[in-house]
Design brief:
The complex is a heterodimer of chains A (about 400) and B (about 160). Chain A is of the alpha/beta class. Chain A is built from 14 helices and 14 strands. Chain A has 2 domains: about 240 residues, Thiolase/Chalcone synthase (Peroxisomal Thiolase, Chain A, domain 1, 3-Layer(aba) Sandwich); about 150 residues, Thiolase/Chalcone synthase (Peroxisomal Thiolase, Chain A, domain 1, 3-Layer(aba) Sandwich). In chain A, the strands form 3 sheets. Chain A has a 10-stranded mixed sheet, with helices on both faces. Chain A is globular, with a radius of gyration of 20 Å. Chain B contains 5 helices and no strands.
Chain lengths: ~400, ~160
């Protein structure tokens, strides 16, 4: 069976606009959650989010390109560029034919869409501008990336709420493993900090007016985030033949549906996805040393996820280190799985486990080792990264440390 | 203003939502008896906010599990209006003030350190604020939850980014 490795990483996040800066923030336990500047929250119950800082669109795109690019697509393209450059890959015509792009985005060009509706209903414009569909469609990032690199293999975008990126990356992994592609550019991108969308989140009463404190007794909900992360997933022999640097091996992908509730998660569903990811990767539970949790810091998720981990790992759960990097980045929805995969992969590569920030005191119902408030030097053989979406759609990725 | 007592109006909201006759709902009927789950609860709170033009805080939502409790909660909020965004604004201003104070204190300490010979190590006395850097720059220092001091945003309210 073909094996698939990660040979390039690109990240734009609230804690760093490239992979090295992102990783430095993770290792230093430095959250990027702060008061929202990109939308009007003067009437809102919550004021904070994980915003990307200091990202100047004009530094990355000329005016002609920007005309067609919502912020989410910009994040996707810039992180893909970093990943491609990082990998050192050279796209020959032959390779372009066997390379595809698979991205996750929950909301696509929501900022653009928000503005267009304002023009339509408030300013009562008579005509929609032609950029409406191309700029807002949630496959825009995947399409632009494929055009930029001229890659013509299987390319798609997935929208499964908070699991979008994991679903996209899992499929990318399978496409490379099964030979549909030799290389995949895969990840997620999201820019949800738009007025209308913030109101929609507020009314769900799951957003904290404090900050994001996963697994803490004092947690009071999630905090939104934004950004993008992309990876080069490459068939192992192809990577070896060109002497590529290898960050980690992606070994498993597991999916499930809760079939339970539109917004409340279910431990049995989540644990099924974790078990399937390990089965797909040929991993025994005892081989897993670290879990990057979905860890949104809602009352519901953190308890459910603790129970799901115990169901999936049995007694080994007490030996696991589990953390939620949403504590530092916020919840970037369709990009979350990708940004969290970056934390997981770079953590394994650098032998430092990411922490759960903002932790105050332990919740007896979340009684796992959650690596509170400081990253931990440790080497793990394998790690998994969880995404559990609204609507009960679960997607889990499994990685193995690359020892060379 | 709508007709009826608070209780009658509350019962009508629930009856309309469940598409049943108001006669089927009594004062002591619980959400459980009505077969309402958490999402239904969320929608009902929204309908009540619209009906009475009130804002229900998250912690009040937990107290409202029966018609009687809802009526009491709604009446309380009519008499004591809750302004969620004002609360959020106050929290933000408090945090900004606290950060400014922490920054000022740090600047003062740094100025003192520069001026004096460092005779004693400053005590951190259990407050979560200060992160005195030692030289190792190790990965593992526990950090403040708000991260490094950041200037608060100017309330520059723009129209949506749009095209």
């Amino acid at each position: 069976m073909r094996r698939v490795v990660i040979t390039g990483v690109g990240v734009i996040s609230p804690i760093g606009n490239n992979a090295p800066d992102f990783w430095e923030s993770i290792a230093a336990c430095r959250p990027g959650i702060d008061f929202i500047t990109k939308a009007d929250v003067s009437q809102a119950r919550f004021r904070k989010a994980g915003e990307v800082k200091g990202f100047v669109s004009e530094e990355h795109f000329d005016d002609k390109s920007l005309f067609w690019l919502d912020l989410f697509a910009q994040y996707g393209i810039v992180s893909a560029r970093e990943a491609v450059k990082d990998s050192g890959i050279e796209f020959t015509d032959e390779l372009r034919d066997m390379t595809g792009v698979l991205t996750g985005s929950c909301l696509g060009g929501i900022t653009t869409e928000d503005g267009l509706y304002y023009k339509l209903y408030v300013e009562k414009v008579k005509r929609q501008p032609p950029i409406s569909i191309p700029k807002c469609m949630s496959n825009a990032a995947a399409s632009h990336i494929s055009m930029e690199f001229g890659v013509t293999g299987a390319t798609l975008s997935v929208s499964t709420a908070c699991s979008s990126a994991n679903h996209a990356m899992g499929q990318a992994f399978w496409f490379v493993r099964q030979g549909t592609l030799d290389v995949a550019i895969a990840g997620g991108a999201e820019a949800p900090i738009a007025y209308g969308n913030l109101g929609a989140w507020e009314t769900m009463r799951v957003v904290s007016s404090d900050t994001c404190r996963p697994f803490s007794k004092e947690r009071s909900g999630m905090v939104l985030g934004e950004g993008g992360a992309m990876f080069i997933m490459e068939e192992l022999e192809h990577a070896r033949a060109r002497g590529a640097k290898i960050y980690a091996e992606i070994v498993g992908f597991g999916m499930s549906a809760d079939a339970h509730h539109l917004t409340m998660p279910l431990a049995e569903g989540a644990s099924k996805a974790m078990k399937l990811a390990m089965k797909d990767g040929g991993l025994a539970p005892e081989q897993v040393g670290y879990i990057n949790a979905h860890g949104t810091a809602t009352q519901a998720n953190d308890v459910m996820e603790t129970n799901a981990i115990r169901l999936a790992f049995g007694s080994h759960a007490d030996k696991l280190a589990v953390s939620s990097t949403k504590s530092m980045t916020g919840h970037s929805l369709g990009a979350a799985g990708a940004i969290e995969a970056a934390a997981t992969i770079l953590g394994m590569h650098n032998k430092i486990l990411p922490p759960t920030a903002n932790f105050i005191s332990a919740d007896p119902e979340c009684d796992l080792d959650v690596i509170p408030n400081a990253s931990r030097p440790a080497e793990v053989e394998a790690a998994i990264s969880n995404s559990f979406a609204f609507g009960g759609l679960n997607a889990v990725l499994a990685f193995k440390r690359w020892n060379g | 203003m709508a007709d009826g007592t608070v209780e009658e109006r509350v019962i009508k909201v629930f009856a309309d939502f469940k598409k049943i006759s108001p006669d089927e709902i009594k004062s002591d009927t619980t959400f459980e008896e009505m077969g309402l789950d958490s999402l239904d609860g969320l929608n009902l709170i929204f309908e009540l906010e619209e009906e009475f033009d009130i804002t229900v805080p998250d912690d009040k939502v937990q107290e409202m599990k029966s018609i009687k409790e809802v009526v009491a909660g709604v009446q309380y909020l009519i008499d004591n209006p809750y302004d969620a965004s004002a609360e959020a604004q106050k929290m933000m201003e408090r945090e900004i003030a606290a950060r400014k104070a922490a920054d000022a204190k740090l600047a003062e300490e740094e100025a003192e350190d520069d001026a004096d010979t460092p005779a004693e190590t400053p005590e951190t006395a259990g407050t979560a604020e200060t992160v005195e850097t030692d030289e190792t720059g190790e990965a593992s220092e526990p950090a403040e939850d708000a991260g490094a001091a950041v200037d608060p945003p100017s309330p520059d309210v723009k129209k949506p980014a749009g095209s």
